[in-house]
């Protein structure tokens, strides 16, 4: 067993590249290019996801790569049913705007990707999950974020679609009982991105001020010095 190697520092350009990926990543639902995603690019994205942290190194994820138009059509129908229900849940004043939003890119992207969490992968007792069983789900979300950032660097737009009944995803994708669908993602090349979240650009909701969200030493306590807002 070898010990830790020196943590090689990032160059200024490397640092800027990481922050650029973080700050310019977008949830993308439209304006996908028709170009296919090359196998080596997809492989790099999946490898980035697979290098996410996970509770007890459980690695609870699987990646279901969906290219079949027939499967996508079933998924789109499941979205449509759930979205029609969702529209009715918003108050009248928001319903019109909600219905005008484009909230998925299922059939217009070359690849859909369902990232799942196998809740039994590590056996009944997993280091770090002993009191908090949902840590495997949180780990899977880390994999999603890794992939989302890597995709930004590769020029691939990613849209997360969550307007489904899980049972529909389970049935269409033949998921075993112990496997939870965590993220349904639509992936395609893009050459244009919103410079702010699309929901903000369209007047749905704005980014909260960071300073309102930072507490010191306990809930609700404002720090003496706040980090500067970006
Ligand atoms: C868990 C989860 C689930 C969803 C989303 C995100 C996440 C994290 N988002 C995308 C969401 O609207 C978007 O992230 C925010 O509006 C912020 O925009 P940017 O991601 O910064 O572009 C999303 N968007 C959408 O159009 N349809 C959807 O069903 C969902 N579902």
Can you tell me about this structure?
This is 5,6-dimethylbenzimidazole synthase. It comes from Paracoccus amoyensis. One of its GO terms (biological process) is cobalamin biosynthetic process. With 230 residues, this protein is of the alpha+beta class. The chain has a single domain (26-191), classed as NADH Oxidase, CATH 3.40.109.10. The protein contains seven helices and four strands. It has a four-stranded antiparallel β-sheet with strand order 1-2-4-3, with helices on both faces. α2 (39-50) packs antiparallel against α5 (135-154) and α3 packs antiparallel against α6 (166-173). It is globular. The chain starts with 11 loop residues before the first helix and ends in a 29-residue tail after the last helix. The model has no long low-confidence stretch (mean pLDDT 96). The structure holds ligand FNR. Residues 26-27, 29, 103-104, 160-163, 197, 199 line the site of ligand FNR.
């Amino acid at each position: 067993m070898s010990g830790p190697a020196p943590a090689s520092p990032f160059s200024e350009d490397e640092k800027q590249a990481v922050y650029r990926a973080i700050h310019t990543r977008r949830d993308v639902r439209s304006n996908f290019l028709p170009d296919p995603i090359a196998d080596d690019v997809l492989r790099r994205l999946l490898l980035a996801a697979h290098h996410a942290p996970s509770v007890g190194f459980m690695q609870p994820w699987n990646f279901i790569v969906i290219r079949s138009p027939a499967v996508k059509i079933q998924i789109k129908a499941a979205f449509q049913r759930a979205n029609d229900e969702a529209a009715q849940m918003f108050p009248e004043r928001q319903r019109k705007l909600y219905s005008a939003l484009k909230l998925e890119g299922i059939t217009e992207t070359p690849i859909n990707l369902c990232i799942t969490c196998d809740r039994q992968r590590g056996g009944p007792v997993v280091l770090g999950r002993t009191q908090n069983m949902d840590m495997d789900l949180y780990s899977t979300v880390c994999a999603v974020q890794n992939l989302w950032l890597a995709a930004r660097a590769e020029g691939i737009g990613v849209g997360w679609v969550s307007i489904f009944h899980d049972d529909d995803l389970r049935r269409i994708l033949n998921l075993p009982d112990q496997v939870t669908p965590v993220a349904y993602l639509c992936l395609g090349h893009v050459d244009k991105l919103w410079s702010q979240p699309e929901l903000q650009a369209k007047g749905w909701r704005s980014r909260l001020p960071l300073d309102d969200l930072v507490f010191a030493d306990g809930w609700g306590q404002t720090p003496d010095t706040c980090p500067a807002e970006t």
